[in-house]
Amino acid sequence: MDICAVVMAAGKSTRMKSKHSKVVHRVSGKPIIQWVADALVDAGCLDQVYIVSDQQEEIRNCLGENVAYVLQEEQRGTGHAVMQAAPFLEGRDGAVIVLPGDCPMVSAKTLEKSLKVFEEAGEDCAAVIVTADADDPTGYGRIVRDGDGNVLKIVEHRDCTEEELKLTEINSSMYIFKTSLLLSALGRIGANNAQGEYYLTDTIGILIGDGYKVAAAKTDFDDTRGVNDCVQLAQVQAIMNRRILEKHMRNGVQITDPGTTWIHCDVEIGNDTVILPGTTLMGNTVIGHDCIIGENSRIECSEIGDGTVVDYSIVTQSTIGKDCRIGPFSHIRPACAIADHVTIGAYVEVKASTVGEYTRARHLTYIGDSDVGKNVNFGCGTVTCNFDGQDKAGCTIEDNVFIGGNSNIVSSVVLGKDSYIAAGSTITRDVPPLSLGIGRSQQVNKDQWVSEKSRLRGENYIRLDDKRSEV
Ligand code: UD1
Ligand code: CA
Fold first, then answer.
1. In ligand 1, which atom is closest to the CA atom of 225?
2. Ligand 2 mean position to 59 CA, how many Å?
3. What is the DSSP string of 19-55?
4. At what angle do helices 32-42 and 108-120 cross, to 10 degrees?
5. What is the pLDDT of residue 346?
6. N or C: which end of the chain has fewer CB within 10 A?
């Protein structure tokens, strides 16, 4: 059977009160419209056309040019939206899946089940509606059935009678239509309703009036949820996130507090890893086995090796090796490649740098744009000075270098293998291997300076603790 899909994504998103189309808002890291497109692909439907408005740019940026787009210049309802796809549908004799662009929970499973219902319903079946029982059906179109349970029509919430408002079976706005019959019904819908719009839902009553059957494929309400405003966006995000967390927990990942843990759809995590409260894992992040991540950490588009601990820290677009200790309060900024057994400690920031095995920067250090070898020790308060006011450049710090506390390593010096840097140095020239670099003025001790000062003031020097006892 020839199967294609029409996705309605031209709505004005009025209730969302956003300058963006609601379908590009993200759920678990993926734009809503991309969830829809992926469900179609997973169900085997690659032939997709999207009904878009003048906000099409941001939708095209999400979906690319492998799908087709049709402009709906004026938003005159869902029926009017699908009508714009007529040139794409004419002459086809199979079925068309029609979906709203605002339903990120749609899955290939729901689509496959509905296609099966459609195929089994026989020749006189014009359409299948995906429906669900809602605890609170407010705002949804209701499925009206006759005494034998046959679908009669869909009535929009605003057009319902008192009796119809009590119906809890809702229209998900996901359908499968026989393509030719959809086109014939669309030509006959009017806009005589509460909103003065052309409703796609009216095609159901028209097709039944023509003597065809319409079947319902009932599914779980959560799988049909639409996003019309920010409240529904948050609800859908919570449900999607919970499903993602449960998938990881079933794979042996321990998530201490699912209520405060957010994991995007493409994240991979090895078993025996523990995710502590307040942690967010974003993008295509990959976490190894036996890691401890959190509390309160954010890892975005990064790779973390087995056995590594990331505590109260932020890691972005970087790779971190095995058995590393990151945090608390470390900031690993984009383009870092950190090898195995590295320690990046409290208030240490690393940016666009490579760091070799067993290197330690335990406290208050900045490493930027630099190449750091193995087994390097950064004393507390070391800064690679990588910005001259105009350009960024880093330093090269070779294996086994020991940097004493509070040192400035000014780019683009090379600290040779096995060299030492004296504490408090500002290093502006290369330090050869096996050498000591000292870049500070020499210490001078002035003997008896304090008592001399007192004498000049005509005072006797009084020790501080004696002064205290006087008070
Ligand atoms: C629609 C259904 C309702 C169903 C609900 C499920 C109609 C008339 N109503 O209502 O029965 O219970 O979905 O979520 O179909 N769109 C366009 N062009 C337009 C209008 C809308 O492309 O002119 C798109 C929107 O971008 C959206 C989709 O169609 O993705 C549905 O429109 P929306 O306004 O959200 O319809 P609902 O009021 O939710
Ligand atoms: Ca909707």
1. 14
2. 17
3. SS-GGGSEETTEEHHHHHHHHHHHTT---EEEEE-TT
4. 50
5. 98
6. C
Q: Per-residue pLDDT for 471 more than 60?
A: no
Name the band, by pLDDT with cuts 50, 70 and 90, for residue 83: very high
Distance (Å) from CA 226 to ligand 2 centroid:
5
List, as own/partner pairs, every contact residues 375-381 make where C-beta atoms lie below 8 angstroms and the sequence separation is at least 24, other chains included.
375/399, 375/400, 376/400, 376/401, 376/402, 376/403, 377/401, 377/402, 377/403, 378/348, 378/403, 379/403, 379/404, 379/405, 379/406, 379/407, 379/423, 380/405, 380/406, 381/405, 381/406, 381/407
Which whole number is the average pLDDT over 59-77? 97
The whole-angstrom separation of Cα 366 and Cα 90 is 63
Q: Based on the residue annotation, tell me whether 363 is a catalytic residue of this protein.
A: yes
Tell me what pLDDT residue 451 has.
87
Taking the model in full, what pTM does it have? Answer: 0.93
| 172 CA → ligand 2 middle, Å | 9
**Catalytic option among 157, 289, 331, 363:** 363
Ligand closest to the CA atom of residue 9 = 1
Ligand 1 atom 22: the closest Cα is on which residue? 10
Q: Whose CA is nearest to atom 29 of ligand 1?
A: 8
Amino acid at 32: I
Contact residues of ligand 1, CB 6 A cut-off: 8-11, 51, 72, 75-78, 80-81, 100-102, 140-141, 154, 156, 170-173, 199-201, 226, 228
Residue 74 alpha carbon, nearest atom of ligand 1: 23
Residue nearest to atom 26 of ligand 1 (CA): 11
Q: Could you give the domains of the chain?
A: 3-224 (3.90.550.10), 252-437 (2.160.10.10)
CB 399 within 8 A of CB 376: yes
**Residue pLDDT, tens place only, 141-179:** 999 999 999 999 999 999 999 999 999 999 999 999 999
Tell me the CA–centroid distance for residue 229 and ligand 2, in Å.
9
pLDDT value of residue 470: 58
| CA 13 to ligand 1: nearest atom | 26
Asked whether the bond before 328 is cis by omega within 30 degrees of 0, the reply is yes
pLDDT value at position 469?
60
Is residue 180 within 8 A of residue 86, CB to CB? The reply is: no
Above 90 in pLDDT, residue 64?
yes
- Both tokens of 141, joined, read 């179109």
Q: Which residues pair with 309 in a beta bridge?
A: 292, 325
Q: For 323-349, what is the mean pLDDT?
A: 98
